[in-house]
Amino acid sequence: MVEIDARINELLQHLEPITLEQMSSIRLMNRTDTKFVTSKDNLVRLLEMAQGKYYAQFNNDSRIANYMTTYWDTDNHRFFLEHHNGRAPRQKVRVRTYMDSDLTFLEVKTKNNHGRTKKKRVEVPSQEIEVQGTNGEFVEALVHQGLNEMHPTVRNQFHRITLVNYGKTERLTIDYDVHFHNLETGNNANVGPLVIIELKRDGNVYSPVLDILRVLRIKPSGFSKYCIGSVMTNRNLKRNIFKEKMVVLSKLANTKLN
């Protein structure tokens, strides 16, 4: 695994860099997302094939960013169940910290019944947020339920690579080394060598990575970090819809994920 990580770093150094400021025109806050799940071995192959087609975002001289996200939910796990039951539109409330720049945002993500995702957020001082005042008003206006009726449930940490095509019409996020800690049960889990790729674009513009993924035989596959992390760390949750998904992910990771 150390050798694979070193190869990933080496390939990223060969991609032309792009700064956060240069990416400001492609924020894609109202977007279509397509997710793919694969292994670190395939990530190496993808990065080899992406040479000359993609920029790699860098910040503080690094092309690999570190994230921490804490999801909030109600006592009856409203947002988890909305996803489990296939409800659309559905929402998630989270606090995300960009650890390299020490920026933290309270965010609400809404996915509508046309597959489009909208994200709204406000900056907060840290992961320890106030549930009243402007934070509570922000959340209640979007999900019609106050933060004082919710609590932190699952926290994750992961590495993220962000690629941007030369046409600057899409953003590709690549998450790996994902670890979960459940704040309700105290349980920990991780997804091993799994890599979650997300293609984010406005509309159906041409995407070079789709050709690469096709060659690598990597097909679209939904993956919610909140739901998978919840299922892996809390056995009391309803999980019928995720049972088959966990079997597929375990085969891909070559180890049992539960």
Set out the fold topology:
Blueprint: H1 2-13, E1 16-18, E2 30-39, H2 40-49, E3 54-57, E4 65-74, H3 78-84, E5 90-98, E6 103-111, E7 116-124, H4 133-143, E8 150-165, E9 170-182, E10 188-190, E11 194-201, H5 208-215, H6 225-233, H7 243-253
Strand content: 35-45%
Distance between the termini: 21 Å
Order of H and E elements:
HEEHEEHEEEHEEEEHHH
The CATH H-level superfamily is Hypothetical Protein Pfu-838710-001
Q: Taking all residues together, what is the mean pLDDT? A: 91
Strand order of the largest sheet: 2-7-6-5-4-8-9-11
* β-strand number: 11
Compute the number of structural domains. Answer: 1
**Subunit organisation of the chains:** single chain
The Cα radius of gyration reads 18 Å
Tell me the helix content: 25-40%
| SSE class | alpha+beta
Number of helical segments with 4 or more residues: 7
Q: Name the overall outline.
A: globular
CATH topology: Hypothetical Protein Pfu-838710-001
CATH architecture identity: Beta Barrel
Spans of 5+ residues with little confidence (pLDDT < 50)?
none
Largest sheet: 8 strands, antiparallel, barrel
Regarding CATH, which class?
A: Mainly Beta
Describe the model.
By secondary structure, this protein is an alpha+beta fold. Helices cover 26% and strands 36% of the residues. It has 7 helices and 11 strands. The chain has helices at residues 2-13, 40-49, 78-84, 133-143, 208-215, 225-233, 243-253, and strands at residues 16-18, 30-39, 54-57, 65-74, 90-98, 103-111, 116-124, 150-165, 170-182, 188-190, 194-201. Helix 1 runs parallel beside helix 2. It is globular and about 50 Å long. The protein starts with a helix and ends in a 5-residue tail after the last helix.
